[in-house]
Design brief:
The complex is a heterodimer of chains A (about 300) and B (about 180). With about 300 residues, chain A is α/β, with parallel strands linked by helices. Chain A is about 60% helix and about 10% strand. Chain B has helices at about 1-25, 35-55, 60-90, 95-115, 115-145, 150-179. The chains are: A alpha/beta (about 300), B mainly alpha (about 180).
């Protein structure tokens, strides 16, 4: 009987742990997909494309009727100014002016660099949506690509996407990845401290200290990746927004280091955070939310 | 303070009026096709010369790119003007407008030569905004209406979006330097 009770207790304990894990998994799923909606959508598209291609047995007729989408750059205009395409298409941009032009996404998701007169540049379309683009040296040149099947999400074009593992290599990828840690660690550290105060649990305070430390280490890297990104597509970004975003981001990186030191000193005194610390972190968290909204504005539009 | 501001405002207003007047005056109703080609040539050469000075002096990447673009674009524009001139048998001739352009450019170059760093960038870009605005006004109000040869007229009309592009680009950089 005794051993049976023992097993039951263990079973209950195990069940509780499993419940906890289940809740965490349920929470993680939507969070992860919300954090990188583009990655999720594009992966699906890439797979869908691969599945479609064998089904499309290319007959001579369909090959003729589906002329390759093309935009002509002439007389300081993109012709047509609005081109309807679909995911999987490759758009050719042909510069027929004597002047150099660029094809640059308003959201910074692609940039052709200078296309000399007489030359072409191609763009592979992978995602549905509306893509507004312009010419950097001649900003009066503006046009749009409408990618069918879209729900109006900007930033829809990325080149060379495949479902295979693609390690990040450009600032466009590093900054959005690192920023997830920056955005998550501060609220979690804060929550951990609050719960620690409520339940009087030292382990929760310990967790908060470590999370603040990770935050202080990772955020300067997030900032560096952001500055790198900006150096690549600077003129294509809305000036007022990127200026505030860069300055606030750099300030936050410094503030996190100071907060981590503050939190570390509280811990060394074997104390728990007081009201002043809680209030300061709450204010910094509001700044972080605002900072994130500016970043989102530049990447996803309104 | 207020008096100083008023004087400054009046001075700025007067300068821009004079600038526009210089173009309008030269235009009149009597500017000839060779003189029109002369004005375009002067405008190109001046902008290329100013851009070369800017390339030497600026350390700002945006300004550098802009100056290089002015050199590239205006060299190409000038080449097409030269080709058209040869084809039509029109040689550029001086006019009051081209002369006043050169005088104003010499004064601006003197001013720019004395500046460096951010002060130089600001003055150069501010000048490029005013300059392109002036050239656009001159082209639309004087050069295009007075051009007699149809091919010359359409070439001038074709250059308008180039100048507008430069103006927009300069304004963009101006706002990013301003804050």
């Amino acid at each position: 009987m005794g051993s049976r009770a023992h097993v039951l207790r263990w079973g209950k304990k195990l069940w509780r742990v499993r419940q906890g894990l289940l809740v965490m998994l349920l929470l993680c799923g939507p969070l992860a997909s919300a954090a990188r909606p583009h990655a999720a959508v594009s992966a699906v598209n890439a797979v869908a494309m691969d599945l479609q291609s064998p089904a499309q047995t290319p007959s001579a007729e369909s090959a003729q009727s589906q002329a390759a989408p093309q935009v002509i750059l002439k007389n300081f205009q993109y012709q047509p100014a609005q081109l309807n395409v679909k995911p999987g298409d490759t758009v050719t941009f042909r510069n027929e002016d004597i002047y150099d032009h660029t094809v640059t996404a308003d959201d910074g998701s692609f940039n052709s660099g200078l296309i000399p007169g007489g030359k072409t540049w191609t763009l592979k379309i992978t995602q549905p949506g509306t893509i507004a683009y312009h010419c950097i040296p001649h900003p009066n040149m503006k046009a749009r690509l409408i990618v069918a099947g879209g729900n109006g999400q900007p930033g829809a074009a990325k080149r060379g996407l495949s479902p295979a593992f693609n390690p990040p290599h450009s600032p466009q990828e590093f900054h959005p990845i690192l920023v997830n840690f920056t955005a998550a660690l501060l609220p979690l550290a804060f929550l951990s401290d609050l719960l620690g105060l409520w339940w009087k649990r030292a382990s929760l305070h310990n967790a908060a200290v470590w999370m603040m430390l990770y935050e202080a280490i990772i955020t300067p890297l997030t900032g560096a990746a952001g500055w790198w990104w900006r150096s690549q597509v600077g003129p294509a970004l809305p000036h007022a927004v990127i200026t505030v975003h860069a300055m606030l981001g750099s300030s936050l990186a410094v503030i996190f280091i100071l907060l981590a030191i503050w939190r570390w000193r509280i811990q060394k005194k074997n104390a728990v955070p007081g009201a002043s610390y809680v209030v300061v972190v709450a204010i910094v968290m509001l700044a972080l939310v605002y900072q994130g909204s500016l970043g989102g504005l530049m990447v996803f539009g309104k | 303070m207020n008096v100083k501001k008023l004087i400054a405002a009046v001075a700025v207003g007067a300068t821009s009026l004079l600038g526009t007047a210089a173009f309008a005056q030269g235009g009149g109703a009597t500017i000839t096709d060779p003189q029109i080609v002369g004005v375009v040539t002067a405008a190109d050469q001046i902008d290329i010369a100013t851009a070369k000075l800017a390339l030497k002096k600026t350390k700002n990447d945006q300004v550098k790119q802009f100056a290089q673009q002015m050199i590239d674009d205006h060299t190409k524009l000038q080449n097409s003007v030269n080709d058209l001139g040869k084809k039509l048998g029109v040689k550029p001739a001086p006019s009051d407008t081209s002369k006043s352009l050169h005088t104003a450019a010499a004064a601006e170059n003197k001013k720019l030569a004395k500046l460096s760093g951010k002060a130089f960038d600001k003055e150069y870009i501010d000048h490029e905004v005013d300059y392109h605005q002036q050239v656009i006004d001159a082209a639309s109000k004087v050069l295009i209406p007075n051009a007699k040869n149809a091919e010359l007229k359409s070439a001038l009309e074709g250059a308008a979006p180039l100048l507008q592009g430069h103006l927009d680009h300069a304004k963009q950089i101006q706002s990013s330097l301003g804050s």
